[in-house]
Amino acid sequence: MSIRLGDIAPDFEQDSSEGPIRFHEWLGSQWGILFSHPADFTPVCTTELGFTAKLKDEFAKRNVKAIALSVDPVDSHLKWIGDINETQNTAVNFPILADADRKVSELYDLIHPNANDTLTVRSLFVIDPNKKVRLTITYPASTGRNFHEILRVIDSLQLTDSHKVATPANWQDGDEVVIVPSLKDEDEIKQRFPKGYRAVKPYLRLTPQPNK
C-alpha cells in the first residue's frame, strides 16, 4: 500500500515501549510524527531518537506528538532506550512501536524489498489533527534525518492552513510569505495582509508573515 499526501493515515493497534497504542486514539486532536527505524541498537537511529527526545518542548509548542517504530520487540526497545539515554544525554519521552509482526510496517509501506526484505526503511510521516498525511520523507539508511527541516515544514503547514499563503524556498519562521495566486480581491488582500505586499511579478506577491 502506497500512502500519498492527503490520505487518511491508517489506524492500527500495536504494542510499544509505553504499552499498547491505538494510533488514532493516541493522536487525539494533535499533530503527529510517525517515523521508522531499520532496527534497534543501530548507530544513526540512536542519535535520531536522542535528538527527538531533546525536541520535546519544540514539539509541544506546535501541538505535535512523536512516535517511532522498529520491528524489534518491546524488551529490546527498553534496553535500547537505556543506551539512547546514556549516549545522547537525554531521556526518551515518546513511545517506540514494537512492530514484530510487521503490521504497521506493511500498512505504511515501510519495508522495501529492493532495500531489505526484513528491515524498515527510514521513513517519516507528518499527520495533522484530521488524521491526514501532510508530509512523507524517506531517507536511505546511511543518512540521519534533519529534524530542523521537519519542524520547519510543520511551521509552514500550520501557518498555511490558517492563512491564504504559501512559503517560498528556504523559508524560516518569521520570513516573508507568498500570497496564494488564487487570492485576487484587493479588498480581501488588504484585510488579510494589513502590512501590505510587494509584487515581484503579478503571480509572485510577498508579504510579511501573518501571526499564526
From TrEMBL:
| Pfam short name (any one) | AhpC-TSA
Q: Which Gene3D superfamilies match?
A: Antioxidant, Horf6, Chain A, domain2, Glutaredoxin
- GO: which molecular function terms? peroxiredoxin activity
Q: Identify one Gene Ontology CC term for this UniProt entry.
A: cytosol
Gene Ontology terms: biological process: cell redox homeostasis
InterPro entries hit by this protein: AhpC/TSA, Peroxiredoxin_AhpC-typ, Peroxiredoxin_C, PRX_1cys, Thioredoxin-like_sf, Thioredoxin_domain
Residues the record marks as active site = 45 (cysteine sulfenic acid (-soh) intermediate)
Q: Do the record's keywords include Oxidoreductase?
A: yes
Which keywords accompany this UniProt record?
Antioxidant, Oxidoreductase, Peroxidase, Redox-active center
Q: In this protein, which residues make up the domain named Thioredoxin?
A: 3-159
Q: Which family does it belong to?
A: Belongs to the peroxiredoxin family. AhpC/Prx1 subfamily.
Question: PANTHER family attached here?
Answer: MCG48959-RELATED, PEROXIREDOXIN-6
Record NCBIfam families: PRK13189.1 (NF009668)
Put simply, this protein is called 1-Cys peroxiredoxin
According to its UniProt entry, this protein's organism is Phytopseudomonas argentinensis
